[in-house]
Amino acid sequence: MTSRFTRLAAVAATAAVAGMTVTPAFAAEAGTCSGSISWPISPSFISYSTKMGNKLEVTDGAKLEGKNITFDIDGAKTKAASKDGKVTIVTKGKVHSTGHEGKMDTTLTDISFTIDKDGKTGEIATNFRAREFKDFNASAPMGDWINGNGVKVANMALSPAADLSGKDVAANGTTTFDKNTDSVKIFPTYDAGRELGAVSIEAKGCGLAKETESTPAPSKPVVPPVTPKDPGKEQPGKDNGSSAGGGVGIVAIIALVGAALAGLFQWAVSQGLVPAPR
């Protein structure tokens, strides 16, 4: 009986565990940062770089569209660069401009647009490789090659203010030239505060809203198979791993003792040792 009860209890427990329903709790997947930014650098930049004798090449994720340049957003670099409550959107693309028979030769890459916490102001920076400009005179010598990274070239004024707290960032505004010791190597003829081109930012998933990493669904527990015990090997009253099994064992012992006493009483009656019950 004990063995049978133990087996039934084990089977019932197995069925209960196997029948449990596990509901996967997936969090929202971490978003990606993408989109584009339009900025012509300055209205005169494209006009000058495309006139006869000069050359403008816009490649590797940037596109020349009429009098404007559109840059695709580099999501990975943008996520890494945004910090301290500011959003720094790094773009793909290369802009290569040549003029004056090669005396002016400039390549811009990794142009970044940083929006300040208030969403109203910001700055534009770029990596560059350029030939040092000497003079417009035809007899002027070719300059040496110079390089720079993260050089600030412009200030942004955005209206209305951009909301950086959400998932997406959209902004429009004006830009002006920031004249410094490095920016003049890129644009040697620009004056401080010169009005540059209008900027338009459309960035999806690049805001400061916190992302919830996806969590895998919990796996269903694996229930080990239950091997029935040999009834002949079980001893009444022995602990079989459950209080129910122990209780049944005690009842079995009491029943056996009672049966033995009943048999002894009947033998005593048959031998005349005790009177038969009436």
TrEMBL record:
Residue intervals of the Htaa domain: 35-201
Pfam family, one: HtaA
Region (Disordered): 209-243
Signal sequence, start to end: 1-27
UniProt KW Protein biosynthesis keyword: no
Pro residues: compositionally biased ranges: 218-228
Membrane spanning stretches: 248-269
Keywords per UniProt: Membrane, Signal, Transmembrane, Transmembrane helix
Protein's name in the database: Htaa domain-containing protein
Lineage per the UniProt record: Bacteria, Bacillati, Actinomycetota, Actinomycetes, Mycobacteriales
